[in-house]
Design goal:
375 residues, 15 helices, 48% helix
Length: 375
Amino acid sequence: HWLASDTVIGVVDQLNIWGLMLVGLALMLGAFIRPAALSGVILLGLYYFASPPFFTMASGTSEGQYLIVNINLVELFSLAVVWAYPAASFGLDAMLYRRKRRARNEAEAAAPSARSLDQPAPALFGPMSRRGLVTSFAGVPFVGGLVMAVLRKHGWKSFEEIHLRARAHPRDVFVASATVKTFRFSGVSDLKGRLPQGKIGSVRLSRVILGGNLIGGWAHARDLIYVSKLIKAYHHRGKVFETLALAESCGVNTILTNPALCDVINDYWRNGGRIEFISDCGGKDILQMIQRSIDRGACACYIHGGIADRLVQEGKFDLIAKGLELIRRNHLPAGIGGHKLGTIQGCVQKGLRPDFWMKTLHNVAYWSAQVKPQN
């Protein structure tokens, strides 16, 4: 905790970065092996005791669930062996060792007479077998990989990045980083009170609710087309349950989701969860999706924004009205969603009066939103 305090975290962060690089380079090149191994043992010891696997659930920084032994402890003992029994025939240390030994042997052979001043000094490499030479340079490819990674991050750009940046306005280009800048994380114990609640009809909702798009794989990440698959893979069943339980512990009692995720919510209920869900009733057949949502226990339903946008554009207000009627017939609050403001205005002009509106707050000013037709 002292190492992560505000007064020293900046220094510790830099020491950690340089320590990892220098220890890694030393081990790859076979230079200063014992000091590097000992420094690595100290670093890994700090990592281990910062998040020890002692009969606890794996945290977000863990690489799995272990009992006492984890990857940090394994690497710690491996470096301890390297420190205790350093390889004398590897890397730069081995070359310097051979040079010193050869110089000592020549000095002993020349004794008691001193070596003449014009006698050449021992060569750095000296006679060495092909196998020994290959062994000594075994770490060089790893150093090359490190250099490539540095150039890739700070110098070389991928074709995709060049192509995207060529199309972008300078003000719309941003650089994102996954580097953790601070080690201070908030927990449930830091909450100052409970979330306030509101009501739609007889349904009482927390003022903050969860969105289900990430769980379902709809990332809306604009130009990052790979993100949807990435976040869907991340939100496996256990992670979904963990997220819902955490939300409930913070006072969030509702999630907005799609009928495709109803079964996940129902499974969560069977495991003791209590969070309610509002369904957007998205799907090919809006009336069928409404009925599915009702059957799976939705506390409220609304016409999906994208579907409502299309129905309003096509003038099919009667289908929206049938959807509202079906929801209300089952004694649930009925809503209409929309991405476009014209969807809301069109429904109002046609006399549709839902129990609530679900409207996005967004703009389309980002650089790739408007695709210009090619000549």
